[in-house]
Amino acid sequence: MAVTINTLRDYKQKGEAFAVLTSYDATFAQIVSEAGVDVILIGDSLGMVLQGNDSTLPVTMADMVYHVRAVAKGNTGSLIMADMPFMSYGTTAAALDNAAELMRAGAHMVKLEGTDWMADTITALSDRGIPVCAHLGLTPQFVNKFGGYKVQGRDDQQAELMIEHACQLEKAGADAILLECVPAPLAARITQAVKAPVIGIGAGADTDGQVLVVHDMLGITPGRRPRFVKNFLAEADSIQGALAAYVQAVRQREFPGEEHTFQA
Ligand code: KIV
After folding, report:
1. Any residues with Cβ below 6 Å from ligand 1, and which?
2. What digits encode the pLDDT tens for the residues 211-243?
3. Cα 107 from chain centroid?
4. Is the CB of residue 241 less than 8 Å from the CB of residue 34?
5. Among candidates 179, 167, 173, which has minimal Cα distance to 206?
6. Which residue is catalytic, options 16, 180, 235, 259?
């Protein structure tokens, strides 16, 4: 049966963890979906892992639409979440037009990076039938404001503000929250504070779902491996085996372990 936002809500209610992975093309979408991954994210990480840029900022709407179309063709029942690229939701009017384009291309949900300033835009999208995931914490489109890729929410004031923002954005209509690189105890508090399913990356074991970039979990991303990444291909004999191991490790809450987690 196809995964919908209701499936993710049910997982949260039952306390069952769900698996999310990025994919950018039809072949990967098919094997990722067949491995039982619940949500496929067409992340703007494609700007780095496919295009070779040093940030996600150069990714355009045309790039995203191209990859969403390809993923939609390979998908066999996962929920398709598409990133809205840098500045494609700078105004509510732009967000509506651009999100509609991603939905027409085959997305079931869009993801926006930011905080309370997105509330009205999220309401406008949600009221018009577009499910939204709000991405908080280390939001890579803000790398120039953060001065690098740094763990967010480490001090008490920042942590309280992040909880407030998650609640505000859920109230505005967000159907899911994604937390990137935040201390595990803070991610656990946010997961408790909202009814919407919370997906974590570098956010500890207590979020409702886990996401990784597929190139990272296959160990093929060049350069230093971030703390929150595990190479699942190292212990498998095929890509399909690595995907299955990831899904199982997430469902059984064996991944992420302490070694993949940030503390306050
Ligand atoms: O772009 C992306 O792949 C993402 C994940 C890292 C969560 O946003």
Report:
1. 22, 41, 43-45, 83, 178, 180, 201, 211, 213
2. 999 999 999 999 999 999 999 999 999 999 999
3. 14
4. no
5. 179
6. 180
